[in-house]
């Protein structure tokens, strides 16, 4: 169990375990519940290359039209006795009717319920998004009209994890303080339910050799590919 726990928590830390969150910040007062599924693509003997099924659930609220706060818990690691929590803020930096730039600052906290060990990793993301296919559907409500928006957007960005600990697991020296990943995704925005798919180039500066699980990569012996899916429900 301890070996399995080490492998699960190590994967969660090294490769990241969720897609980009709130690429387009929420509107003021809007509240949503989120769920995510997926992870790095691994070669599983007898099955083939599949994304590791990490899961998470979260909550977001628009403080203003420009700023969204969020929190999430990684439910897969929790099942193995490791609490991994994420708290952060998404900020709209620039936008027009069709496109925009946003930045996210998150704090990732990991706590091992068996040993009491804990760690904290800051995360800084930046994303560009482009909207298309917007459709307006007016509905009469008393004396005014309410417009429900149905549109999509594509996005691309970079996610940066920072590991300032000198020692990794099993006493190994930490040789990588900065762990970047590139992300490319699509979101389908609807009034109540919205959906997300994302492809990540994970940790392109890190070697993927001499580790327990083999990972396919566009960069051969560096990094890995990740595939993620998400769903959002507006409260």
Give a structural overview:
With 235 residues, the protein is mainly beta. It has a single domain (2-234), classed as Porin, CATH 2.40.160. It has two helices and eleven strands. It has helices at residues 2-15, 75-79, and strands spanning 31-44, 48-51, 55-62, 67-74, 82-95, 99-112, 118-141, 144-162, 178-189, 193-207, 222-234. A ten-stranded antiparallel β-barrel has the order 1-3-4-5-6-7-8-9-10-11. Strand 7 and strand 8 (144-162) form a beta hairpin. The longest helix has 14 residues, at 2-15. The chain starts with a helix and ends with a strand. Residues 1-9 and 141-147 have low confidence and may be disordered.
Q: What summary fits the major beta sheet?
A: 10 strands, antiparallel, barrel
Distance N to C terminus: 38 Å
Strand residues, percent = over 45%
Series of H and E elements: HEEEEHEEEEEEE
Number of structural domains = 1
Radius of gyration: 19 Å
Which fold name corresponds to the CATH topology? Porin
Number of helices: 2
Which structural class should the secondary elements be placed in?
mainly beta
The CATH architecture can be given as Beta Barrel
Number of strands: 11
* Multimeric status of the protein: single chain
Poorly predicted spans: 1-9, 141-147
Shape: globular
Give the C-level CATH assignment: Mainly Beta
